[in-house]
Design a protein that fits this description.
Helices cover 35% and strands 27% of the residues. The longest helix has 17 residues, at 176-192. The chain contains seven helices and ten strands. It is α/β, with parallel strands linked by helices. The radius of gyration is 17 Å and the shape is globular. Strand 1 and strand 2 (20-30) form a beta hairpin. It has one domain: Rossmann fold (3-Layer(aba) Sandwich), CATH 3.40.50. Bound molecules: adenosine-5'-triphosphate (ATP) and magnesium ion. Magnesium ion is lined by residues 46-47, 168. Magnesium ion (MG) binds next to helix 1. This is ABC transporter ATP-binding protein.
Amino acid sequence: MNTATPRLSARGLVKRFGPTTALAGVDVDLADGESLAVMGPSGSGKSTLLHCLAGILLPDSGTVALDGREVGGLSDRERSLLRRRHYGFVFQFGQLLSELPAIENVALPAMLLGTPRREATDLAGRWLGSLGLAGMEGRRPGELSGGQAQRVAVARALITGPAVVFADEPTGALDQTTGHDVMRILTETTKAAGASLVVVTHDAQVADWCDRRIEVRDGLVRHAEAAR
Ligand SMILES: Nc1ncnc2c1ncn2[C@@H]1O[C@H](COP(=O)(O)OP(=O)(O)OP(=O)(O)O)[C@@H](O)[C@H]1O
Ligand SMILES: [Mg+2]
């Protein structure tokens, strides 16, 4: 890792849910433009880590900083604004609004940040085209295949030019070939857009497409290795 301030930096993250310690003291650094795969068994704390890194959950102790600025002290409203402005999200499913056509699903995050509808819609159309979805702009999520819907989700995550994209098992509901397709699009497009990426995955091949991987076990990062 270079000596510049990390894009995202977490220190000593601890998160408990009642008697369960989901995170037991985790440090993570993510460089500008770097992609990081988070692996580990079910229940080990991967999603909790992603939610803490993204400011969705507040840790019980420890800090998270974006570009050297701590996010823990922000109000709920400030944190949700920070997520909207600086982060993109791709989840397993359910992030698309079922009643809106693909193009409006993609345009929405830009409109929420104040981009006029016409401009946001044009931009959304270009994103859909570049992800191989030209002609599908008017389809609602239920009229798309799982892989197509996830590509719409990738476009939606990237349209605002986020600093970091967070993806939790984005291919968990897809067959392996389609899943690999979506993951390649996610990693390549995120990299081309200059955003950093944190992706939770069970798939070692998916992790190979990332710059680096960590393994979470019992709420701790057990080892870190360069993927290449
Ligand atoms: N909201 C919650 N309330 C109570 N316990 C929770 C909550 N969220 C997570 N946990 C617990 O914290 C631990 C870590 O959960 P987490 O969802 O982070 O695991 P994970 O590694 O993402 O697992 P999976 O691969 O199954 O998605 C688990 O024991 C889980 O049951
Ligand atoms: Mg999980």
